[in-house]
Amino acid sequence: MARKWWTLITVSIATFMLLLDVTIVNVALPEIERDLGASLTDLQWVVDSYVLALAALTLMAGSLADRLGRKLVFTVGLAAFTAASLFAGFATDALTLNLARGLQGIGGAAMFGTVLALIAQEFAPRERKTALGIWGASVGVGVAVGPLVGGVLVDSLGWEWIFFVNVPVGLLTIALALTKLREARDPSPGRLDWAGLVTFSSALFLLIFGVLRGNGEGWSSPEIVASLAGGAALLAAFAAIELRSRSPMLDLRLFRVPAFTGASIASFAVAASVFSMLLYIVLYLQNVLGLSPLEAGVRLLPITAMAFVFSPLAARLSERVPLRVLIGAGLAVAGVGLLVAGGLDADSEWTALLSGMLLMGAGIGLVNPTVSEAAIGVVPAAKAATGAAINNTFRQVGVAVGIAALGAVFQGRVESKLGDLLASGPPALQGQAGELAPAVSSGNAEAAIAAAPPETQTFLADAAREAFLSGLNGIFVIAGVTALVGGALSLVLIRARDLHLDAREENTTSPEPAAVEEQPALAA
Fold this sequence. Notes:
Number of helices: 19
Radius of gyration: 23 Å
Distance between the termini: 42 Å
Order of helices and strands: HHHHHHHHHHHHHHHHHHH
């Protein structure tokens, strides 16, 4: 078998493992909550500690890959991810689990920063659409089987096995990477941008920390104000550093190209909307509707199945339909799906989500392979790893920001609604919204209800359900609008004249060194 196909198989298995891990974790969060005594903020950090590491380090991983070798960085990332998965499985408290998830994110960043570049270096431009379609299908499979695999593992073996399952898959992929991948690097790399890495990662951490803790500590508290202000200042410092650096981690000149800006916005929008909502949908299915992890996983299949069907279809359509149309339409479909899924009430069953989930899955399938193609289509072949890393960074930032921001709105609406309901309820419950809201927000209201006076438990149970649904419906609207706005901006910004997928040399295995500003694709 030709090396390019072995490369595609290897990176597809790695991507499958990463996406499998994401969807498995979502299904297992309620069990982790109960077993480790985790709060909603702890559950948000289970996801955000992973994606924060991805967001902060994917750019550096792309730069390292262009300098040290894409095969080397990819393989080291695989090893780190596999070891961290083992560590996560043995976690006995929320802090240890979140540290392990952060280590997983470090390994995942090394893979995310190199996957598309490894494909680009082996496949000529005219073959790349097919390769990206196959890779997109692996994304769909990983997402599709994740809820089912997660449900089976959690129900039969425990949540720890959602991490242990990564170990054999990781070892197999490491073996393939060592024996089948070809090493390649940028022939004229610059210096590593350590100042950019420190300011960018610190800014992201402070901003996400501030948003996640804002409801609990108070938005005007010194801790939250300092965190948000410090994050904003470091982000400004990062931009200044990158503009002055000769070898920036994030080349801001790329954003002079409307198509690259549009692709970055699209990646952020789909992550901040659909993918961020999965955490809250799972909490609703398991903790409000009372479904088991496996039953919840089955209910998520409409999203994953549609993503699996539409990913290869989008890759084929991209040969005849402009990328901006596919990306814009995909985000619009996903946005409509989120809006349709909202409007839940106390009598709703999971089928009330069905039509919305079908649309969300179709939208994801249309966006995933096409936005990746757009992102690498505007950068020089020698900078493919860096271009792909920037796009993947925006995706991970979207998940981190989306989960934190939606969670802040969700918690705020739950507490407000619960306060209104309890104010007209039994005297013993009045003024208790601030204490009860965290349990209701995390979907773990049963313990709080059981501890309440017996004569108030029925009222409290109804109030908790209504408050949870109020928060959930509110963030469905916000997520839907985010996707729609992202789709509109993508449609305007991603211009065909900025994309040079077919104009590149057919042989991209030995690209000529070229400065970024010399590339026609990067004209303003």
